[in-house]
Amino acid sequence: MSHSHNSEHSHSTPHQPARKTPPFRHAVRLFILNAILYGACAAFIGAIIGDSLPDNQQLKVVFALFVVPFVLAIISTVMHVKSHTWTSVDDMAERLLHPHQTPRQ
Question: Which of 79, 82, 91 is nearest to 16 (CA)?
């Protein structure tokens, strides 16, 4: 195999090298993207189970459907930022607020 040990396990590409510390703005964009994705999943779950819940449990479930995606988005963002690699997730986060921006070169 002609690949070196580092190139096999690295998630960065030659055009998108790993960053040492992503800027705060980028971390916020990653958080927003994660919150949207987890929030959409929670909304879908809520839509499916919402009618079958007893009245005394609905408020607790709605609260959990807001809190759990928020916590998961925080954890996902921190783990991704600590990985110090630039992936397609970073490209999506950058295009989320700037749709006409080309991927980072």
Answer: 91
